[in-house]
């Protein structure tokens, strides 16, 4: 019993460590006072003000657009890369390719950002594209490092996928391209979705790389928050963060509900099959 | 062991008929993976309508050979002809061949019907015809009412039958089966063996089966090729392989066998006599062998061909020549008895120190059996029982 008490205490400490900061953030978003850390009574005025703040909303909108576009691009490229690594045997330069694909995972973001900035500047001087820095350059930059994560996810999924499924489809008369779209893609779809979500999240909270490659008039949300810290955080940011958290939490809740139901259904089916077999 | 082939003998088997053209011809095919030689200069001819088994342990190259027929591996050297057409450079999706995979490889995101229809869809068969053919083949494998289920809603035996239906629905001339019964339990496996043979005879498809299970190969196939280290050790009917193994490997791989080492002392047109220290007696075999006197050979005697008795065996007229002067008769002490119900296995230690395995049907009840542990017994066998092996 004493042991249990200690364990429960440790558990609550763990929860507190993880969630008290977030709870505080939500709590102070309903603060009347302009000072973030001084409680001045309950109010939703910061939410109302937030809706008037074009700079903050614009930044959030830009962040979402960049995240969606770069996640989509990195899913396409990452799937192709994962496919090359998992299915094309030992082609020339495979080891190098495998290493290079995962390099952005361990590269310091500052270096990634700086090198991309140099690349964009050089490109602009050489061929006139990209014309200045903005949404395009941030999207490209985010794609380069989120693609690595997607490639790793897809590759590991493909390695665990029974290759004889693809062989069976080919044996039944389907050409390789058709096999990919009709057999491989539907089976690895969950991995692609989770890859997309991971890429989306990574892009949404990146501040370092974005600071290097963004230009005037294209400031992402994390950059706005980060720079506003220097002048004291407005409770509007608390309100915005709360809203985003509600959206994310709802999404996760629904997803886990759906997954749990599918899991139960699957177990029931298997039980039925065993009994019926 | 029940080793009766269940096929009825036909007039002239195709492999004995010189006028027959083989349907599949494998010519000196070699496959290497790096330094490892998986298949080593294998040549085979397989005829239309055969149920051909490739039998071997793991790493014997049997699956690699099958995958080369399907087109998933390219031979390093040699040629494969199917129906007279050289298969070099022809991809799997253009070969007149279908394969049933060991893992069944059912598409998990498709229903049973969609799985079976997949191959027909690739060929652009009309929708009405697809529906009809899928229905017919599912009825054949007795899965008519399971069409809407997904693979994970089926039991192992049902999945196996879906895989079979899917590979048969395109009416291939040649069906390759990779360990088709490997994942089934013993009872289901025995029943499915007969089903497979029935389906094969009904549809007249040529089957090539890869298996490591010798009993499975024996019951189902018209001919067996025994493979070892990428080489074919012997090709023949189940009876030939079992009764007339050509090498020690085949004799020991198929069933169990007692191997006596000896030296040829008499080499006549109608018999040979082999002196064996191992057996403790001379071995008499009633047919000539192509080995000179003085050569050292092995003699394989199957456990069920040895008779056990507590008295010295009486020389029946047929065995007179064989058992004269104590030929094919030796004695020892019973060390172990394993009671299997229908038969019992006796391990008898000969005076020479060698242990011999004998199986005998349990004609009388276990409790009334005359031979028990530590009895001194005589072992004898008929002149045709021994097989002389030089390799």
TrEMBL record, chain A:
One of its GO terms (biological process) is transmembrane transport. Coiled coil: none annotated. PROSITE patterns: ABC_TM1. It is a multi-pass membrane protein. Residues 60-258 form the ABC transmembrane type-1 domain. Its main location: membrane. Keywords: Cell membrane, Membrane, Transmembrane, Transmembrane helix, Transport. The chain crosses the membrane at residues 7-30, 66-85, 97-123, 135-158, 179-199, 237-260. InterPro entries: Bact_Polyamine_Transport, MetI-like, MetI-like_sf. Belongs to the binding-protein-dependent transport system permease family. CysTW subfamily. This is ABC transporter permease subunit. It comes from Azospirillum argentinense.
């Amino acid at each position: 019993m004493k042991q249990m008490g200690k364990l429960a205490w440790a558990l609550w400490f763990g929860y507190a460590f993880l969630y008290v900061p977030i709870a505080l953030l939500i709590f102070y978003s309903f603060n009347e006072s302009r000072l973030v850390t001084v409680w001045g009574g309950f109010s939703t005025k910061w939410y109302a003000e937030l809706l008037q703040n074009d700079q903050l909303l614009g930044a959030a909108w830009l962040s979402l657009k960049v995240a969606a576009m770069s996640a989509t691009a990195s899913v396409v490229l990452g799937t192709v890369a994962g496919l090359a690594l998992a299915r094309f045997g030992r082609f020339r330069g495979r080891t190098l390719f495998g290493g290079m694909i995962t390099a952005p995972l361990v590269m310091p973001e500052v270096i990634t950002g700086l090198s991309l900035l140099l690349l964009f500047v050089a490109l602009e001087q050489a061929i006139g594209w990209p014309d200045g820095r903005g949404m395009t350059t941030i999207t490209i930059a985010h794609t380069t490092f989120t693609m690595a994560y997607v490639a790793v996810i897809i590759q590991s999924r493909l390695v665990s996928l029974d290759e004889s499924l693809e062989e069976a489809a080919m044996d039944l008369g389907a050409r390789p391209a058709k096999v990919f779209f009709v057999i491989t893609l539907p089976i690895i779809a969950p991995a692609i979705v989770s890859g997309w979500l991971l890429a989306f999240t990574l892009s949404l909270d990146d501040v370092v790389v974005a600071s290097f490659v963004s230009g005037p008039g294209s400031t992402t949300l994390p950059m706005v928050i980060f720079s506003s810290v220097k002048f004291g955080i407005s409770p509007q940011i608390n309100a915005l963060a709360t809203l985003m958290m509600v959206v994310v939490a709802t999404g996760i809740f629904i997803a886990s509900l759906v997954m749990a139901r599918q899991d139960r259904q699957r177990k029931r089916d298997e039980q039925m099959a065993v009994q019926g077999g | 062991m029940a080793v009766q082939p269940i096929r009825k003998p036909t007039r002239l088997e195709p492999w004995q008929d010189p006028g027959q053209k083989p349907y599949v011809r494998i010519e000196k095919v070699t496959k290497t993976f790096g330094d490892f030689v998986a298949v080593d200069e294998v040549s085979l001819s397989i005829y239309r309508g055969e149920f051909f088994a490739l039998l071997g342990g793991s790493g014997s190259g049997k699956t690699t050979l099958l995958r080369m027929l399907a087109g998933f591996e390219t031979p390093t050297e040699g040629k494969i002809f199917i129906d007279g057409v050289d298969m070099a450079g022809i991809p799997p999706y253009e070969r007149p061949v279908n394969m049933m995979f060991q893992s069944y490889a059912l598409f998990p995101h498709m229903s049973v019907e969609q799985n079976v229809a997949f191959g027909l869809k690739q060929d652009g068969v009309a929708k009405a015809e697809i529906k009809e053919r899928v229905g017919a083949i599912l009825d054949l494998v007795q899965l008519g009412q399971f069409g809407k289920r997904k693979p994970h809603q089926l039991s192992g035996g049902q999945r196996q039958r879906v895989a079979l239906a899917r590979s048969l629905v395109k009416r291939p001339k040649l069906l390759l089966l990779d360990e088709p019964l490997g994942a089934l339990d013993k009872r289901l496996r025995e029943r499915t063996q007969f089903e497979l043979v029935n389906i094969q005879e009904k549809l007249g498809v040529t089957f090539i089966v890869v298996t490591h299970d010798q009993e499975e190969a024996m019951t189902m196939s018209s001919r067996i090729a025994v493979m070892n280290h990428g080489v074919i050790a012997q090709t023949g009917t189940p009876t030939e392989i079992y009764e007339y193994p050509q090498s020690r490997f085949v004799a020991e791989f198929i069933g169990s066998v007692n191997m006596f080492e000896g030296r040829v002392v008499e080499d006549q047109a109608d018999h040979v006599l082999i002196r064996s220290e191992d057996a403790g007696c001379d071995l008499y075999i009633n047919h000539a062998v192509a080995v000179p006197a003085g050569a050292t050979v092995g003699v394989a005697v199957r456990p069920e061909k040895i008779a056990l008795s507590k008295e010295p065996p009486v020389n029946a007229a047929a065995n007179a020549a064989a058992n004269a002067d104590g030929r094919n008769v030796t004695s020892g002490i019973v060390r172990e008895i394993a009671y299997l119900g229908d038969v019992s296995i006796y391990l008898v230690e000969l005076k020479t120190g060698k242990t011999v395995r004998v199986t005998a049907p349990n004609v009388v009840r276990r409790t009334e059996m005359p031979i028990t542990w530590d009895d001194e017994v005589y072992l004898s066998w008929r002149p045709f029982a021994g097989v002389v092996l030089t390799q």
